[in-house]
Design goal:
The complex is a heterodimer of chains A (334) and B (328). Chain A has 334 residues and is an alpha/beta fold. Chain A has a domain of 220 residues: Rossmann fold, CATH 3.40.50.970. A five-stranded parallel beta sheet of chain A has the order 1-2-3-7-6, with helices on both faces. Chain A has a two-stranded antiparallel sheet with strand order 4-5. In chain A, helix 8 links the parallel strand 6 and strand 7. In chain A, helix 1 runs antiparallel to helix 10. The longest helix of chain A is centred in the N-terminal third of the chain and has 26 residues. The termini of chain A are far apart. Chain B is α/β, with parallel strands linked by helices and 328 residues long. Chain B is 37% helix and 20% strand. Chain B contains twelve helices and 14 strands. In chain B, helix 1 runs parallel beside helix 7 and helix 3 runs parallel beside helix 4. The interface between A and B is large, with 43 and 42 residues. The structure holds thiamine diphosphate. The site of thiamine diphosphate (TPP) has 16 residues of chain A, from strand 2 and strand 4.
Chain lengths: 334, 328
């Protein structure tokens, strides 16, 4: 099923906020690429092109109340949930006080306990069954939270993913399975991952509804995720929401996408950049003026500068911290 | 004190923990109406209902993964893997997720949970119903691994595991489920601390380290050779990770000789860790080379009776190894 764009009814204030987080994510992400080229960080994995989908999804949740198990591309989503620019910059550099892992994990391995953003690992899709387990616990306790977990379309090939989705469907758990389909898993195109046209088509075989939306439009994603969250909260079970997006960069700072896709393809994506099209949409609706756009740009630039300067000046963790906390008993050493 | 079987100790532990803490629940294949294929959860479904004794889909990684999720939310799951041989699909969840959760989040997230798995051979189970998997998991920091050898420890270690704030892999010597009986008090709380070995028989001639079913046979072998004047000190390791190094080293400092018995195949098995520990920290106390008695290095235990017997260590093989080491 493809949902086409009826407009979500959001306040102008909220629309501006959505744009602001997309913008901040973009500028931070671009800066991370520069830091990598300068040799100041060891790794970056980018969310450029995914921002609309991520922020649209996050805004459809009760942020801070609902639970989120993101994947590595979800910078914009995690910012929407409460991560700060400074915290992201600390993570890039593996500096002390970095909230996801204290510098233990590579950048973009999100965790933010205060916002119910759960720690994830690198092996893809492993968070899927955790989301089902959290959904199970919510149901057991009679709480009204819902869970959202995300992956790329390639990761829906994993048994990890199927088993988690199946569980949630069998037990009608309050979980939203969010797939950010950018058509590539590193270099491997979607048609080598699945025989169905949309990742959401897999839902039928598992017994839950699946919808595909234009992930370049935050409002379409907002609407689909809001509907899924309402279903979940009403005890009607999980939904699979697939957002069609573009990965406008190489897979990561270790990748060279010229080896598997043409520059024309990439330019065509950039022509449909969700940040630009959402800005133009908001301008056409008189939600954003040229002055406000310029102000936001200046503010984003300043936040990025300050975050990077803060992180560069921040200390590394003490080497002794690396030995802890292996077990809960030595958490206090950390 | 009433005598109960090892599996009854396991069942009692789950029953008491379910009654004590409403966050505790059981999840696994056939654990509900059937009461488990070995009947470890017998009666619990009737007593606590389908929401706390959950028949899972036939899918091990999600038995553990769903358990992790529930633990992250504050529950205390007991995940049953029907046979240790089928734990391998859940390896990723146990090793990459549960065990690393605390460290990778710098203590922000933890996965307090128990994973129960019947293991071990000698029951006609062939290659895929006989495996010993402890070496894979004892290697993993962040995970605790325990193995009871008698009903008292079975009960006490499982109750301790449920209360432990970390993920605990609880390996059950399934051959001993009904074979091994012992006294367990009815009117007091039975708790056995994780991380403590137990000297189950004192002796001065050599130290014998074992766990699970092999500990049971080791006591029998020690009894046999006692008649010949060899006094074996038997140490039941009980917890493989974290290992009780003091008890291991203390025993060898006293006896000067060490035999390690395990029913996994020899190479890279858990006994290698004990041997390495002794080589590093008790070298000058040793009067003989450290000796390991374990299964042969074939892929797993064969089915046919004489082939299975060839694979499995037993009291006679252990007694022979004791005599050999004693004579060194
Ligand atoms: C289990 C596992 N296998 C391989 C990898 C290496 N890897 C990291 S990301 C990735 C591609 C993922 O593609 P997709 O799920 O489509 O998400 P995308 O990166 O396109 O957003 C691969 C192969 C991994 N992290 N985990």
């Amino acid at each position: 099923m493809v949902v086409t764009g009826t407009e979500a009814k959001l306040k102008k204030e909220t629309l501006r906020e959505i744009y602001w987080i997309m913008l901040l994510a973009r500028r931070l992400d671009e800066r991370a690429w520069v830091l990598h080229r300068q040799g100041k960080i060891a790794f970056h994995i980018s969310g450029i092109g995914h921002e609309a989908a991520q922020v649209g999804a996050a805004f459809a949740l009760r942020r801070g109340h609902d639970w989120v198990l993101p994947y590595y591309r979800d910078l914009a989503m995690t910012l929407a949930l409460g991560l700060t620019a400074r915290e992201f910059a600390l993570g890039l550099m593996g500096k002390k006080g970095e909230p996801s892992s204290g510098g233990r994990q590579m950048p973009s391995h999100w965790s933010l306990r205060r916002a119910n953003v759960v720690s994830h690992s690198s092996p893809v899709a492993t968070q899927t069954s955790h989301a089902a387990g959290i959904g199970l616990a919510i149901k057991m306790r009679g709480d009204d939270a819902v869970v959202l977990t995300s992956v790329g379309e390639g990761s829906t090939s994993q048994g990890e993913w199927y088993e988690g989705v199946n569980w949630a469907a069998v037990h009608r758990l309050p979980v939203i399975f969010f797939v950010e389909n950018n058509r590539f898993a590193i270099s491997v195109p979607q048609e080598h991952q699945m025989a169905v046209e949309n990742a959401a088509d897999k839902a039928a075989g598992l017994g839950l509804p699946g919808v595909t939306v234009d992930g370049l439009d935050p409002l379409q994603v907002y609407q689909a995720v809001a509907a899924a969250a309402a279903r979940a909260r009403a005890g009607e079970g999980p939904t699979l929401v697939e957002a069609r997006v573009f990965r406008m960069t190489p897979h990561s700072s270790d990748d060279d996408d010229r080896t598997y896709r043409t520059r024309e393809d990439v330019e065509a994506m950039k022509a449909r950049d969700p940040l630009g099209s959402f800005r133009e949409f908001l301008r056409s609706q008189s939600v954003l003026s040229a002055e406000v756009v310029a102000e936001m740009e200046a503010q984003a630039k300043q936040q990025v500068e300050q975050a990077v300067a803060f992180a560069e000046a921040a200390p590394y963790p003490e080497v002794s911290e690396a030995a802890h906390p292996v077990y809960v008993e030595d958490v206090h050493h950390a | 004190m009433p005598e109960i079987t090892l599996i009854e100790g396991i069942r009692q532990a789950m029953d008491e923990e379910l009654a004590r803490d409403e966050r505790v629940f059981i999840v696994g294949e056939d654990v509900g109406r059937r009461g488990g294929v070995f009947r470890a959860t017998q009666g619990l479904y009737e007593k606590y209902g389908p929401e706390r004794v959950i028949d899972s889909p036939l899918a091990e990684l999600s038995i553990v993964g769903v358990g992790i999720g529930a633990a992250l939310y504050g529950m205390r799951p007991i995940c049953e893997i029907q046979f240790a041989d089928f734990i391998h699909p859940a390896f990723n969840q146990i090793v990459n997720e549960a065990a690393k959760m605390c460290y990778r989040s710098n203590g922000e997230w933890t996965a307090p949970m128990v994973i129960r798995a019947p293991y071990g051979g000698g029951i006609g189970g062939g290659l895929y119903h006989s495996q010993s998997v402890e070496a894979f998991f004892a290697h993993v920091p962040g995970l605790k691994v325990v193995v009871p050898s008698n009903p008292y420890d079975a009960k006490g270690l499982l109750k301790a595991a449920v209360r432990d704030p970390n993920p605990v892999l609880y390996l059950e010597p399934k051959k001993g489920y009904r074979l091994i009986r012992g006294a367990v008090p009815e009117d007091e709380e039975v708790l056995v601390p994780i991380g403590k070995a137990r000297v189950s028989r004192e002796g001065r001639d050599l130290s014998l380290f074992a766990y699970g079913m092999m500990h049971h046979y080791s006591l029998q072998a020690a009894q046999q050779v006692a008649a010949e004047g060899i006094e074996v000190e038997v140490v039941d390791l009980r917890t493989l990770n974290p290992l009780d190094r003091e008890t291991v080293l203390g025993s060898v400092r006293k006896t000067g000789k060490a035999l390690i018995v395990y029913e996994d195949n020899l190479t890279g098995g858990y006994g290698a860790e004990i041997a390495a520990l002794l080589a590093e920290q008790a070298f000058t106390d040793l009067d003989a080379p450290v000796r390991r008695l374990a299964g042969p290095d074939v892929p797993a235990v064969p089915y046919s009776r004489p082939l299975q017997d060839w694979f499995m260590p037993n009291a006679e093989k252990i007694a022979a190894a004791i005599r050999e080491l004693d004579a060194y």
